[in-house]
DNA sequence: TTGTGTTTTACGACCTC
DNA sequence: GAGGTCGTAAAACACAA
């Protein structure tokens, strides 16, 4: 737990734009023309037919994954294979875990950035009000 | 219990390099 | 073509009523 806390602090010290330079522009398509994504078909194949249910990763597996994510958010294939064999997982699972983890991290960073901007905005509005009152008083 | 909201795992579609 | 993001399905989990 303490290590993941350290990673959280490290995370906060990095600017989100360093990792995702196009983070904001990616949200809006060019000309605002959003192409509707096609719906994913349900996988009637492997998972359901072979009764392989989605299972949660163990705490140890998650710990090791978090540790790796803390040191590097991107996953090269060599590292992916190594991690997968260490954890007894499919390399695909490791890749998916990293994808999802990056998405969660990005959301967290966005939330932090939003609340930071909101605080700045609020204090600016307050200052504007203060200055307006000051001008008002000096004119009357 | 069970209904409901949230989180986690997984994947398809699309994008970028 | 490999590996990324995005959006979403569905299982797993938490928890109030």
TrEMBL record:
What is the protein's major site of localization?
Answer: nucleus
Q: Where would I find the Homeobox domain in this sequence?
A: 48-108
On the tree of life, the source organism's domain of life is Eukaryota
Which keywords are on file for this protein?
DNA-binding, Homeobox, Nucleus, Transcription, Transcription regulation
Q: Which GO CC annotations does the UniProt entry carry? A: nucleus
Q: Where is this region: Disordered?
A: 31-52
Gene Ontology MF term list = DNA-binding transcription factor activity, RNA polymerase II-specific; sequence-specific DNA binding
Subcellular location, record wording? Nucleus
Instruction: Note whether Ribonucleoprotein occurs among the keywords.
Output: no
One Gene Ontology BP term is: response to auxin
- What residues are annotated to bind DNA? 50-109
What role does it play?
A: Transcription factor.
Q: Say which family it is in.
A: Belongs to the HD-ZIP homeobox family. Class I subfamily.
Q: What is this protein called?
A: Homeobox-leucine zipper protein
Origin organism is Nyssa sinensis
> From which residue to which, out of the full length, is covered?
1 to 140 of 203
């Amino acid at each position: 737990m303490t290590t993941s806390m350290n990673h959280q602090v490290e995370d906060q010290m990095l600017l989100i734009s360093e990792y995702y330079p196009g983070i904001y522009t990616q949200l809006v398509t060019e000309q605002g023309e959003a192409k509707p994504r096609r719906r994913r078909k349900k996988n009637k194949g492997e998972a359901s037919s072979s009764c392989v249910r989605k299972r949660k990763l163990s705490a140890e597996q998650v710990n090791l994954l978090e540790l790796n994510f803390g040191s590097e958010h991107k996953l090269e294939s060599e590292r992916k294979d190594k991690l997968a064999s260490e954890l007894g997982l499919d390399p695909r699972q490791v890749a998916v875990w990293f994808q999802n983890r990056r998405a969660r991290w990005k959301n967290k960073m966005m939330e932090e950035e939003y609340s930071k901007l909101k605080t700045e905005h609020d204090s600016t509005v307050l200052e504007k009000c203060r200055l307006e009152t000051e001008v008002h008083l000096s004119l009357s």
